[in-house]
Design a protein that fits this description.
By secondary structure, this protein is mainly beta. It has one helix spanning 108-111; strands at 11-15, 18-22, 30-36, 50-57, 60-64, 68-71, 76-79, 85-89, 95-102. A hairpin with a 3-residue loop joins strand 5 (60-64) and strand 6. The radius of gyration is 13 Å and the shape is globular. InterPro entries: Cupin_2, GPI/OXD, RmlC-like_jellyroll, RmlC_Cupin_sf.
Length: 115
């Protein structure tokens, strides 16, 4: 067993108000808790990992090159491997979500990428 205490977990803060926290996971899958301020959007990006995005609080819009879906509390969406997408807080309050990736990944995806 490998517990991860939220307050002691690895954290990545790419923009003010956009925070990601690495939860328990492995090289086969990983969980990242995140929060976004109103109006914040991640850049359009893709990755080899399949991704499930679960909205825990607020509103999130997940957009691909062909479509978009608005997520409310407890709604989720599956993004296929290499499917370009972005996640935006389209509400007026802080949004909180949970991303699940398979295979698992680290924050190196964001820190080592070239725009």
């Amino acid at each position: 067993m490998r517990p991860v205490a939220f307050d002691e977990a690895e954290t990545y803060e790419p923009d003010e108000g956009w925070r990601r926290v690495a939860m328990a996971g492995s090289d086969r899958f990983s969980f990242e808790w995140f929060e976004k301020p109103p109006g914040h959007s991640s850049p359009m990006h893709d990755h080899e990992n399949e991704q499930v995005c679960l909205c825990l609080e607020g509103e999130l819009t997940v957009a691909t090159e062909d479509d978009s879906v608005a997520l409310q509390k407890n709604d989720s969406v599956l993004l296929e491997s290499n499917e370009a997408h972005r996640v935006e807080n389209t509400g007026e309050e802080r949004a909180v979500g949970l991303d699940v990736f398979a295979p698992g990944r680290s924050f190196d995806f964001w820190t080592d990428r070239e725009e």
